[in-house]
Amino acid sequence: MSKLRLGTRGSALALVQARAVAALLDVDAELVTITTAGDVDRARGDKSRWVGALEAALLAGEIDLAVHSAKDVPSELAPGTEIVATPRRADPFDVVVGDLREGARVGTSALRRRSQLLAWRPDLEVVEIRGNVDTRLAKREAGEVDALVLAAAGLDRLGRDVGRKLMEDVFVPAAGQGVIAVQGRVGTSAPGVDHAATHAALDAEREVVRALDASCHTPIGILSLEGRMRGYVGLPDGSSWILEEGADASDLTRRLVAAGAEELLRAVSA
Question: Porphobilinogen deaminase N-terminal domain: from which residue to which, for each copy (predicted)?
Fold first, then answer.
C-alpha cells in the first residue's frame, strides 16, 4: 500500500499533531502542508477558515486524511466526509500564563474565554490578542498583556511547561478542546488511530453545539468527562451566564435550554 497522505496546516502545533497521528497509523504516512484562509487572515471569518482548504483537498483526492484541532472543526462537515478517528484526548482545560493581579490585562481571541474570565473576575481587562502560541507568549513577554489564556493541550504538545490550570467552575473548555480530529471521506479509515472513549466524548460535545445552533461567534463551552457533561453559555461581557451539568448530550441540552441558553445565544447574535 502506498503512503497515506495526511493534510495539515503548517503551524508548529498543527505539524506536531499531524506527526502524532502519523506515528499511530498502522501504515506509512506522509504530511502534506496546506495553507488555510485562517493562516492568511486570523482576524476574519468563522471556523471554516481553518478547515475549508483541507476539506477541499480531501474531496479533490489530493490528500487521504485531514488532521485538525477538533475545537476548530465546524459542527457541519463538508458533505461526503466524516471524522473517522480521534487519538486519546490530551488535557482539555485552559491555563493562564502570567499574573492575574487586580485589573490585569489578559489576552485572548476567544469569546468563550472572554466571557468566562469576566464572569469569574469582572475586574480584569480582557483584550484581543492573535497569533500562534509562540507569538502570543512573545507578546506577553514584550509587555503587551499581563497574562494569556491558552489551551493546556497546545502548550503541552509544544513542550511549553508554563501556566496554571483554570479549574474554577465557569471555565468549561470549548467542545473538542484537547482532541485531534482526523477527517476522511465517508467510508475511509485511519487504522490504529482511534480512541473510542475520546471519539464518543467529541461526538457528544459536538451534538450539544449543533442542538443549540451555536458557533465560534458564541461564548459556549461543552465538556464530556468521566461520564458527565458540563456546559457554559454566557454573554461576551460575562454579565449573564449559565452553567449546567447533564448525564449525556440530550440531557445537557435540555437543561441548558430550560435555563435560558437559547435566549443568551440569540442576544449574542443580535
Answer: 4-186
- Residue 230's beta-bridge partner residues? 223, 245
Q: Give the integer Cα–Cα distance in Å for 198 and 209.
A: 17
- Tell me if residue 146 is catalytic: no
Q: Are strands 4-8 and 147-151 parallel, antiparallel or unpaired?
A: unpaired
Clarify whether residues 26 and 42 are in a common domain. yes
In this structure, the answer to whether residues 28 and 45 fall within a common structural domain is yes
Q: Choose among 76, 28, 24: nearest CA to 195.
A: 24
Q: Cell digits for 7?
A: 493534510
pLDDT in tens, 85-135: 999 999 999 999 999 999 999 999 999 999 999 999 999 999 999 999 999
Write out pLDDT tens, residues 121-176. Answer: 999 999 999 999 999 999 999 999 999 999 999 999 999 987 899 999 999 999 99
| Number of domains composing the chain | 3
Short-list 120, 107, 111, CA closest to 218? 111
The pTM (predicted TM-score) of the whole model is: 0.93
- Identity at 53, one-letter amino acid code: A
Active-site residue identified among 64, 72, 94, 146: 72
Q: How far is CA 37 from CA 50, 54, 151, in A?
A: 6, 10, 22
Tell me the backbone φ, ψ of residue 65, rounded to 5 degrees.
-145, 150
